[in-house]
């Protein structure tokens, strides 16, 4: 091997080592969402507020909605996307969260367990993220279809004159809308009440309707807002 070839090889080896080595980043969050509208918009609103007050690093990645109709896709696909993001990231995230709904996916329970097995934290909702939004205003343990939760949110947005007076998935300031009348703390309290009896070793998330673990992610982020 000539000198030039050896030099090139060492340079390539350095590049590989540099790419492979990731700097652990304290107080860092990677939030990967199934939805491309409401969920990332909600967490970006919280991200902005945290960065303005406390700094730190929180990356919110919105993944295009995976439609099951005729595509053969599933919630598990989200985990593959998350793995790729983590692999390609330049830092080692301290907290990796995946956020997804049950909707009509058949692999919901498996996706949750697979995510946990990979070391991710899972903020699931059954049936949909809209149940978590509803909890910002009222408590409910009624098993309703996601369309029904949307209708209830329509009534709430009209009553409190939020947005255009109707619930929509593309409100960029959805997080700040939901802070109305201490809504974030209300949602956490209501979610804790609903999930108090949930036992992950005994209960299947797919059968716990309604249910949501989004409050756990929000609690972790809220720590940075509550600090003086």
Give a description of the structure:
It is a single chain. The chain is of the alpha/beta class. Helices cover 47% and strands 16% of the residues. The protein has 9 helices and 5 strands, in the order H-E-H-E-H-E-H-E-H-H-H-H-E-H. The protein has helices at 3-20, 38-53, 76-88, 108-117, 129-134, 146-159, 174-178, 183-195, 214-226; strands at residues 23-33, 57-62, 91-101, 121-126, 211-212. The protein has a 5-stranded mixed beta sheet with strand order 2-1-3-4-5. Helix 4 (108-117) links the parallel strand 3 (91-101) and strand 4 (121-126). Helix 2 packs parallel to helix 9 and helix 8 packs across helix 9 (214-226). The radius of gyration is 20 Å and the shape is globular. The protein starts with a helix and ends with a helix. The model is unreliable at 63-73 (pLDDT under 50).
């Amino acid at each position: 091997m000539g000198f030039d070839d050896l030099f090139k090889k060492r340079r390539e080896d350095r590049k590989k080592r540099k790419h492979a080595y990731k700097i652990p980043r304290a107080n860092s969050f990677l939030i990967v969402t199934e939805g491309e509208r409401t969920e990332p918009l909600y967490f970006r609103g919280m991200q902005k507020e945290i960065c303005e007050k406390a700094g730190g690093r929180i990356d919110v990645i919105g993944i295009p909605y995976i439609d099951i109709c005729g595509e053969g896709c599933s919630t598990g696909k989200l985990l593959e996307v998350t793995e790729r993001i983590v692999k390609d990231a330049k830092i080692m995230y301290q907290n990796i969260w995946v956020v997804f709904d049950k909707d009509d996916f058949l692999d919901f329970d498996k996706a949750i367990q697979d995510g946990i097995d990979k070391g991710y934290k899972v903020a699931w909702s059954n049936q949909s993220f809209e149940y978590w939004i509803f909890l910002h205003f009222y408590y409910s343990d009624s098993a309703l279809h996601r369309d029904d939760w949307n209708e209830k949110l329509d009534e709430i947005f009209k009553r409190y004159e939020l947005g255009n007076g109707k619930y929509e998935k593309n409100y960029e300031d959805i997080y700040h809308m939901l802070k109305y009348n201490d809504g974030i703390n209300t949602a956490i309290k209501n979610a804790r009440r609903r999930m108090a009896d949930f036992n992950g070793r005994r209960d299947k998330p797919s059968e716990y309707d309604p249910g949501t673990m989004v409050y756990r992610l929000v609690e972790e982020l809220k720590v940075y807002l509550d600090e003086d």
